[in-house]
Design goal:
With about 240 residues, the chain is an alpha/beta fold. The protein has 2 domains: about 1-105 and about 210-235, 3-Layer(aba) Sandwich (Rossmann fold); about 105-205, Dihydrodipicolinate Reductase, domain 2. The protein has 8 helices and 11 strands. It has helices at about 10-20, 40-45, 60-65, 85-90, 105-120, 145-155, 210-225, 230-235, and strands spanning about 1-5, 25-30, 50, 70-75, 95-100, 130-135, 165, 175-180, 190-195, 200-205, 230. It has a 6-stranded parallel beta sheet with strand order 2-1-3-4-5-11, sandwiched between helices. Strands 7-8-6-9-10 form a 5-stranded mixed beta sheet, covered by helices on one side. Strand 4, helix 4 and strand 5 form a beta-alpha-beta unit. The structure holds NADPH dihydro-nicotinamide-adenine-dinucleotide phosphate and the ligand O=C(O)C1=N[C@H](C(=O)O)C[C@H](O)C1. NADPH dihydro-nicotinamide-adenine-dinucleotide phosphate (NDP) binds near residues 12 and 57.
């Protein structure tokens, strides 16, 4: 497949490595300083684009891909409030979008276990629940997209809570998410249920960015040639 990389930072470089190992060709690289090349013939000839930039550029980049007729896998976080409107646009244009707050297989297993655990724990009032995420200190958005997805999975069962808040809270009608930025941490997410007598902890710890990058390339292989809007539940039979 001819893959266009949009964003050539930490993730773009890791994706390039995995895509080449899987026999794909990186036909064009778009970074901050050549974003006008998304109108070029070379970009339009790509089978799929993989977009990992930042919360502020992602939406415009998805639009450019759709307008150029290129299916797009988007891993950027911090823009998902706009998913309903962009999904409508993608469908109206007969385009293709694959998005996920986290592309790693392990995190998507963690999401499933998290939902199931929350459905049990919500019946026991002695336990408080909190989400915590740890990332490298260059990360622009807080809380992480993964922590928001995990929180949404918990809130499905905690009907007495009416949303999440990005701070630690006690006995609140909000679910607290704590964000810690430190060093080079690739991404660690923890859900803790705490009672006066014990604690139950569910953690996913990424050891590198390899799992995210492999998932993004698998999503690109899945998306090429399709139209519509997809996410990890369409790719993984969990
Ligand atoms: N869904 C998932 O599984 C994962 C998602 N992410 C998310 O992916 C995003 C990128 O992460 P990461 O690679 O670590 O970030 P980096 O900051 O390392 O890389 C982002 C790259 O995008 C470039 N860029 C900025 N604006 C544009 C633009 N308009 N067009 C094209 N390129 C642009 C930046 O250039 P410059 O440096 O010049 O600004 C930089 O090279 C983040 O939102 C992060 O949260 C990260 C890991 C996994
Ligand atoms: O910015 C990162 O690095 C990561 N971002 C994603 C998120 O916001 O959840 C996924 C992963 O945790 C790494």
């Amino acid at each position: 497949m001819r893959i266009a990389l949009v964003g050539y930072g930490k993730m773009g470089k890791e994706i390039e490595k995995i895509a080449k190992e899987r026999g794909h060709c990186i036909s064009i690289i778009i970074d901050q300083d050549n974003s006008e090349d998304m109108n070029s013939t070379s970009f339009k000839q790509a089978d799929v684009a993989i977009e990992f930039t930042n919360p502020y550029s992602a939406l415009n980049n998805i639009n450019c891909c759709i307008n150029s007729g290129v299916p797009v896998v988007c891993g950027s976080t911090g823009w998902l409030d706009h998913l309903p409107e962009i999904s409508e646009y993608v469908k109206a244009q007969n385009g293709a979008l694959f998005y996920a707050s986290n592309f790693s297989l392990g995190v998507n297993i963690f999401f499933k276990v998290n939902q199931h655990l929350a459905s049990i724990m919500s019946k026991f009032n002695d336990y408080s629940v909190e989400v915590e995420e740890w990332h490298h200190n260059q990360k622009l958005d807080s809380p992480s997209g993964t922590a928001i997805t995990a929180a949404e999975g918990i809130l499905e069962s905690y009907t007495n809570k009416n949303g999440w808040i990005n701070q630690s809270v006690n006995d609140s009608n909000k679910l607290g998410i704590i964000s810690i930025r430190k060093g080079e941490i690739p991404g660690t997410h923890t859900v803790t249920y705490d009672s006066p007598v014990d604690k139950i902890v569910l953690t996913h710890e990424a050891k590198s960015r390899e799992g995210f990058a492999l998932g993004a390339v698998l999503a690109a292989e899945f998306l090429a040639g399709k139209t519509g809007v997809y996410t990890m539940s369409d790719l993984l039979a969990l």
